[in-house]
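stuck on this one:
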Amino acid sequence: MNRENTLFCDKRPLLIAHRGYTPIAPENSLPSFLAAAKLGYWAIETDVHRTLDGVLVCCHDYSLQKMYGSPAVIEEATYAELKDFRVCRGNGLENFSADELRLPLFEEYLDICASHGCVPFIETKGDVVESVLHTVEKRGLTDTSVLSSTKFVHIEEARRLSNVFVHHIFSNVEKMQRIAEMGNGGLSYNYPNLDEVPSGLIEQTHAMGVKVCLRAGDSEETLARMIEMGLDYIPTNRTLPR
């Protein structure tokens, strides 16, 4: 089975748990990843940074200020300096142990995805593309993972190094054409209001062999419209798989 079939053969709406399942656990935490996996999401999205000593960790921001209450910048600190901080913001904090609320290792996130059959949907932050791809390849997950980024240079780097499925965040028609040339890729257009999506844009993207999504399917009504529009996968912050 080729890679595209591996990723997209499921006939369900392909829902991506954005930063894990955050209604019951803090974003980008081990409990949010595990909850998303147990709920049966097609993919679990996370953001990956590298510490000063080369350890890959999962966190949206470049510092720990928002979620951990520390001004520590991830790429400027060693993992040993970061591992004792605990999430102090988000849902369900009282339900989890201190160990569950530490900064997750990328390897731990991959463990959860692999053990539950979820697609790792990995957004790269900072200079991590090569390290991420090496880790994914070592785990035998290249064919069933997505590497995503807002930075097109990350997409280009990923394609030079691997044939992993690439996804450009907040893209445009020009970048769509370049992804079509690369092959095995997709993108999201930045249209929060579905009524503003230009007529024919989804069809044009598909005609170029590029997968497409929009953000975010956070209600049953929005999800139904996105499915009707023919989107290939759908990120959500709360809608449950069915």
Q: What stands out?
A: The beta strands are 15-17, 43-50, 56-58, 119-124, 146-149, 165-171, 185-189, 211-214, 234-236.
